[in-house]
Structures are given as structure tokens and as C-alpha cells.
Design brief:
With about 170 residues, this protein is of the alpha/beta class. It contains three helices and six strands. Helix 2 crosses helix 3. The protein is elongated and about 65 Å long. The N and C termini lie far apart (about 50 Å).
């Protein structure tokens, strides 16, 4: 009997936790009701890193769709997100020492900056305009720059969404 009471208590706690947490989605966000669709043209690339704008646009598209934020359309969207990648860098981030006179780079950081605008086509007004920066740190000894680049793109997408679509 005591064992059954403990199980019932644990079940109750688990149910309360699940109910309290709920499912996190932005479909119930406070975006204006008139915004249902968004255009997402390919970002321009003014950096020296080939392919970064395509990768960024693809990841941003994936996050908007998977987060049920807005429906992505090719044209005549209620809103449009435009952007230009303006900078890409891959710089030493953390150093270690090999000897008294020798320093070794342990980590690098990829920084990507983009000028972004989120424009409400229905009301002909900018919702967000600004420069957004993402960063990705990677372990130079075990990972490649591509790992840092992907982390920077993911970070940049998250920040773009926070400043534009999710800021509502």
C-alpha cells in the first residue's frame, strides 16, 4: 500500500510539471494578428566568406518554419525579412601554453554580422532594422572552422528572431 501511494505521488508531481511547463512555441506569440506570412529572400553577402549568406538564409527559413512563427512564402508576404551579411571573421579566442616561450591557440571564434530588416508589408512600416552579430567558438584541436561557422549561424539566427519576429 505504501509503495502504491509513493507511485501515485510521483505520478502527480510528473503531471504537474508537464502541465506547468507546457509546450513552448511561438505560434501563440504576440505578433500582430495581420501577419501570417513572411517572404525570406536570399540574404546578400558583402563578406569574403563564400556561401555564408545561403547558409544563413536556409537556417533562418528552417527556424521560422519549425517554430511555427509565420508561413514562409515566395512573394506577396504580409512581412519580409531581408538581410546582408556584412562581416565574417575567424579569430583566435583562447590560448594555452606549450612552454615558457611558446603559446598555442586552443579555441577560435567565428563572428558573423548581418544588417537585417523585418518589414510589415501590410502597414508599410519597419518592425526591426539593425545589425545583428552571431558567434561560434570551436576547439581548434578537435573541430574545424565549419563547426564554428555553423554555431555562429545558429546564434545569429536566434538573435535575428529575437529582435524581429519574437520581439513582439
Amino acid at each position: 500500500m505504501k509503495h502504491r501511494a509513493v507511485l501515485n505521488f510521483l505520478f502527480l508531481i510528473a503531471a504537474l510539471v508537464l502541465i506547468g511547463c507546457g509546450v513552448y512555441t511561438f505560434s501563440g506569440s504576440s505578433l500582430p494578428n495581420h501577419l501570417k506570412t513572411v517572404e525570406l529572400p536570399l540574404f546578400a553577402n558583402n563578406s569574403l566568406e563564400p556561401g555564408v549568406a545561403e547558409d544563413l538564409t536556409q537556417e533562418l527559413n528552417r527556424e521560422i518554419v519549425s517554430g511555427n512563427l509565420l508561413r514562409v512564402v515566395n512573394d506577396n508576404g504580409d512581412a519580409v525579412i531581408r538581410g546582408t551579411v556584412v562581416a565574417y571573421s575567424n579569430d583566435p579566442y583562447a590560448y594555452g601554453t606549450v612552454s615558457d616561450r611558446e603559446v598555442d591557440i586552443d579555441q577560435y571564434i567565428v563572428n558573423i554580422s548581418a544588417d537585417v530588416s523585418f518589414f510589415d508589408n501590410k502597414r508599410s512600416q519597419a518592425i526591426y532594422e539593425g545589425t545583428v552579430r552571431g558567434e561560434g567558438i570551436y576547439d581548434f584541436k578537435n573541430e574545424t572552422e565549419d563547426h564554428g561557422k555553423q554555431r555562429a549561424i545558429n546564434d545569429l539566427v536566434e538573435r535575428i528572431l529575437q529582435r524581429s519576429v519574437q520581439s513582439w
